Amino acid sequence: DDYELGGFPDFMRKEMAEQPEAVERALRGRLDERFATAHLGGLGLDAMALRAVRRVKFLGCGSAYYAGQMGATLVEELARIPADAEPASEFRYRNPVVDPDTLYVAISQSGETLDTLAAVQELRRKGGRVIGAVNVVGSAVARECGSGVFLHAGPEVSVASTKAMTNMTVSFAMLALLLGRVRDLSASSGARIVNGLRALPEHIEQVLGTDDAVREVARHYSKATHMFFLGRVRGWPVAREGAQKLKEISYVHAEAYQSAELKHGPLALIDPDMPSVVVVPDDELLSKNLSTMEQIKARGGPVIAVTNADLPDGLADHVIRVPRGEPELDPIVFTIALQMLAYHLAVELGRDVDKPRNLAKSVTVE
Ligand code: G6P
Hints:
Blueprint: H1 2-5, H2 11-17, H3 19-27, E1 31-32, E2 37-38, H4 47-52, E3 55-60, H5 63-79, E4 83-87, H6 88-91, E5 102-108, H7 114-125, E6 129-134, H8 140-145, E7 148-150, H9 163-181, H10 187-208, H11 211-220, E8 226-231, H12 235-250, E9 253-258, E10 276-280, H13 286-298, E11 303-307, E12 318-321, H14 330-348
Parallel strand pairs: 3-4, 3-5, 5-6, 6-7, 8-9, 8-10, 10-11, 11-12
Antiparallel strand pairs: 1-2
Helix pairs in contact: 3-9, 3-10, 5-9, 5-12, 9-10, 10-14, 11-14, 12-14
The structure holds 6-O-phosphono-alpha-D-glucopyranose.
The site of 6-O-phosphono-alpha-D-glucopyranose has 16 residues, from α5.
């Protein structure tokens, strides 16, 4: 293990640090500057087949499910076709309606998660078209799907997924770009996304470079027993993944909410002992997120803003800065900032970050 860790204290930290190169690998040979699109040859779908897709449904468990939710948002934004994500663990139990015009995407780092495999089998039994988004080549989900996109994240050891999850979302950005470009996404919009993807490894380096600042924030909140994670639209799966990471590796209770839902219940819990991590991208919803922070501050709740916007003074108690990129791709860099926050909180609390209690890297039983 010492050799494989290469000087890092644990695998989670090593795998977080590997994200720029992992993303490079996911992009390699797949971006097309000339036609402002992506090539995903493993899908086995030509332009006609891509055009025939009327809906996309992402299925996965844990972080793979949240990556699917990010993917669904990307597909709706770039291709303007309905898309959603569902936990693969529920799918087969609700006698799902399987629609021939839907492209189903089964997401799994290991390719061995039983619930995800069972969802694929249910789909195939009913004649659904399902592709894999899988890291481990030759795994059960990859074989059962027969086509799809490999994540190329490299081996992931830490139970909490970092680089594999990042590459899931990167792959879905390429899938969304491809689906968009056979429809009405313009060449200039496509080029903007291609350039945004090309810039990601550098942006991820910049996020990783804020490690000391994130550690300081983690130290400040290390006594917290509960935390909220809030985001809206693109920021909502980011908040969910941030809360999940914190729960699984630090054992601190965290809950994610869509920011606008705060006033419908959870606002009652805001007080000086309930910090809120607010996902604040510099996008068309910035003013809405500023008012979310104001609502929390007005009730005495501490605010940690994760942001690439210039915030008015005094709105956030702590700020975690991420670089500006293309807004559609913001979830990728914001998620990495939240990995770092969960990591440092867990280390501060003395947890075994690579092997959290009660959890397994891949769950091959029901
Ligand atoms: C387990 C792990 C999670 C992971 C999930 C899905 O629950 O603890 O970190 O996200 O399985 O794993 P998969 O290999 O299918 O992506």
